[in-house]
Amino acid sequence: MKLGRAVLGLLLLAPSVVQAVEPISLGLALAGVLTGYIYPRLYCLFAECCGQKRSLSREALQKDLDDKLFGQHLAKKIILNAVFGFINNPKPKKPLTLSLHGWTGTGKNFVSKIIAENIYEGGLNSDYVHLFVATLHFPHASNITLYKDQLQLWIRGNVSACARSIFIFDEMDKMHAGLIDAIKPFLDYYDLVDGVSYQKAMFIFLSNAGAERITDVALDFWRSGKQREDIKLKDIEHALSVSVFNNKNSGFWHSSLIDRNLIDYFVPFLPLEYKHLKMCIRVEMQSRGYEIDEDIVSRVAEEMTFFPKEERVFSDKGCKTVFTKLDYYYDD
After folding, report:
1. Are 136 and 242 contacting, i.e. CB atoms less than 8 angstroms apart?
2. Closest Cα to residue 171, out of 250, 115, 228?
3. Which residues are known binding-site members for ATP?
4. Whole-number Å distance between alpha carbons of 52 and 163
5. How many CB atoms are closer than 10 A to CB 129?
6. Are both 159 and 280 inside the same structural domain?
7. What is the CB neighbour count within 10 angstroms for residue 133?
8. By C-alpha distance, which of 51, 110, 103 is closest to 79?
9. DSSP state of 227
10. What is the CATH number of the domain that holds 82?
11. Which is more confident, 54 or 129?
């Protein structure tokens, strides 16, 4: 698809641009567009290029996080500072590794999408953003040796093609223990591994593991009458990393990535409250072009289930299903 657009773009070039390529035959120019070698700048006018990514705007990233992510003051701050600082560091010592933890529907996948869209125009569909889903790509424990080899080859090949590659691993809590350790050399403090530098790559892990520990902290603050915004990273991060490391049902169980301190940030996603669900519903209404109807907002939010059973503080599905519930009220 992208190569086809590139060729079409060359054929539709303005005369002044066509004249600029006259010293070489049109056929050779077309080949150059196809390969990206003869006219890389011209090629990148019509296709996404690793070397010509958009510059990361701190303001744009912050706006996306503020407008689209609710109830996650810790995640917002960590993601903004970590990603912006890493991308603007011309010589990072190692790849950026972020491990996002929390219940379903709290915003982990959404944040990985926001990061990808702020770095590459194609977002999650970019050729330089790679998504692995544990249950889809690594389903069988008996094939773990094969998966390790394939994973190393895939990462090595893609980082060789684009140093700024982004790798997202979803469902880490369902990944077979030991598999993720195959990428440990790529995440370490090495200038080169078999002639390839991984220092500008980014690795993002998404997991439900550790969500219980995050909830315990959030609930303790709520029961003490404290604001959730008063929760600091130091209140959660260490206990979260230990919980994930010792969780036998997690892909990080006794992982060398944690043992060797190769995860830069354990990012906690707090369970969402009633008010946060209403924020999600309003944004979804706006995205569909509807005027915000506070009566419908309240009715949809009240249909959700909450825990603990007696106190009903946190949504047990976050914002994950509010979008489908909204369909009931706008069934044309």
Report:
1. no
2. 250
3. 102-109
4. 12
5. 25
6. no
7. 15
8. 110
9. -
10. 3.40.50.300
11. 129
Is 37 inside a domain boundary? no
For the chain, list the strands marked E by DSSP. 96-101, 129-133, 166-170, 202-207, 265-268, 306-307, 314-315
Backbone angles phi, psi at 204, to 5 degrees: -125, 125
Q: What is the pLDDT of residue 322?
A: 87
Enter the tokens of residue 190.
């090495």
End position of a domain, from candidates 227, 247, 267? 267
Distance between CA atoms of residues 312 and 206, nearest Å: 26
Rounded-to-integer distance, Cα 27 and Cα 5, Å: 16
> Residue 282: is its pLDDT beyond 70?
yes
| pLDDT tens profile 221-253 | 999 999 999 999 999 999 999 999 999 888 999
Residue with tokens 């002639």: 195
Q: Count CA atoms within 13 Å of residue 319 on its CB side.
A: 25
What whole-number distance in Å separates Cα of residue 272 and Cα of residue 220? Answer: 15
Q: Are residues 115 and 155 in the same domain?
A: yes
Higher pLDDT, 331 or 125: 125
Place 22 in a pLDDT band, splitting at 50, 70 and 90: very low
Rounded CA Rg of the chain: 23
Residue list for the binding site: 102-109
- pLDDT value at position 37? 52
Question: Which of helix, strand or coil describes residue 132?
Answer: strand
Specify the length of the chain in residues.
332
What contacts 295, CB < 8 A, 6 or more positions away?
none
114 within a domain of the structure (yes/no): yes
- Is 32's pLDDT higher than 50? no
Segment 164-219, tens digit of pLDDT: 999 999 999 999 999 999 999 999 999 999 999 999 999 999 999 999 999 999 99
User: 291 is in which domain, residue-wise?
Assistant: 272-326
